[in-house]
Design goal:
CATH architecture: 3-Layer(aba) Sandwich
Structural class: alpha/beta
CATH topology: Rossmann fold
Largest sheet: 7 strands, parallel
Family: Belongs to the NAD(P)-dependent epimerase/dehydratase family.
Strand order of the largest sheet: 3-2-1-4-5-7-8
Order of helices and strands: EHEEHEHEEHEHHEEHH
InterPro entries: Epimerase_deHydtase (IPR001509), NAD(P)-bd_dom_sf (IPR036291)
CATH superfamily: NAD(P)-binding Rossmann-like Domain
Organism: Roseobacter denitrificans (strain ATCC 33942 / OCh 114) (Erythrobacter sp. (strain OCh 114))
Number of helices: 8
Strand content: 15-25%
Helix content: 25-40%
CATH class: Alpha Beta
Domain NAD-dependent epimerase/dehydratase: 5-162
Number of strands: 9
Shape: globular
Radius of gyration: 18 Å
Keywords: NAD, Oxidoreductase
Distance between the termini: 24 Å
């Protein structure tokens, strides 16, 4: 590819994607709303742009072959706060991408699009939407947006329903963990698979306790390597007894399935900010 665009480049996951993405294109254009993202990699440029402003984001996509769209508010917030970056921002990416002739958009969707399903149901990629929050609703909206733009306009997209890409320090993560190397493989397969149409795949490592089924997405060639079971003994030794009446423990969305709408889900979690530094 000549040009690849990465949104959300200043985020934790974006920080791990920047370097490997430069190997897939002549020019990686990273974008976010911060002033600076640190030292740039060879072949990388940075453009500050607000996803919610079409006049800012559209020029960034001009001439791009593909977009890796990881930009968003990554927590539950009141709907009004999510509307711009998470809803309007997605529309702007798809509409600007279509007008610019982009071939494919790779989107960081989330398990929270189906977060109210029980983990014991072992859902596949065709599970119906059951968002656990306004944040999850934005993921449902963008998945449906991607399907519509494929059906009506032929713009391909791969929607990565990431479960939890963070250090394994709780029992939920024994099933939901996506390691950073597996994240990179997942995004790479979403980019280099010759034809994807509209696709959904769960972003999860090769965990013994994985609660989702990627069988119908096997054509994407994603074969995760890491397994959270190596952390199981330590995590389970410190775990509290399971409360089977608690949706935060029984549903895919974890704490997001329990909090009130508009209230932070991340505040209930112990996410370590191990962002890659440049």
């Amino acid at each position: 590819m000549k040009k690849l665009v990465l949104t959300g480049a200043a985020g934790r996951l974006g920080s791990y994607l920047r370097e490997p993405l430069t190997a897939l294109c002549d020019t990686l254009v990273s974008t976010d709303i911060v002033d600076d993202i640190g030292t740039l990699y060879a072949g990388e440029t940075y453009v500050k742009a607000d996803l919610a402003q079409m006049d800012q984001i559209a020029p960034v996509l001009e001439g791009a072959d593909m977009v890796v769209h990881f930009g968003a508010i990554v927590d539950e917030k009141p709907f009004e706060e999510l509307l711009g970056p998470n809803f309007v921002g997605s529309y702007n990416i798809w509409e600007a991408g279509y007008k610019a002739g982009v071939k494919r958009i790779v989107y960081a969707s989330s398990i929270h699009a189906v977060g109210m399903h029980l983990k014991s149901d072992f859902i596949g990629i065709d599970a119906e939407h059951r968002p656990d929050t306004f944040y999850g609703l934005a993921k449902c909206f963008t998945e449906d947006l991607g399907r519509m733009y494929w059906d009506k306009r032929g713009l391909e997209s791969v929607h990565l329903r990431i479960l939890s890409c963070a250090q394994v320090n709780n029992t939920r993560a024994l099933g939901s963990w996506l390691s950073y190397p597996d994240l990179i493989q997942l995004v790479t397969r979403a980019i280099d698979t010759p034809s994807v149409g509209f696709s959904i795949i769960y972003g999860v490592s090769n965990n013994d306790r994985a609660p989702v089924d990627n069988a119908k997405a096997s054509f994407l060639g994603y074969r995760p390597i890491d397994n959270a079971e190596v952390y199981a003994a330590e995590v389970l030794a410190q775990a509290e007894p399971v409360d089977t009446t608690d949706p935060g423990q029984m549903c895919h969305g974890g704490p997001f399935a329990k909090v009130d709408l508009g209230q932070s889900g991340l505040a209930q979690m112990n996410v370590v900010n191990d962002k890659k530094q440049t």
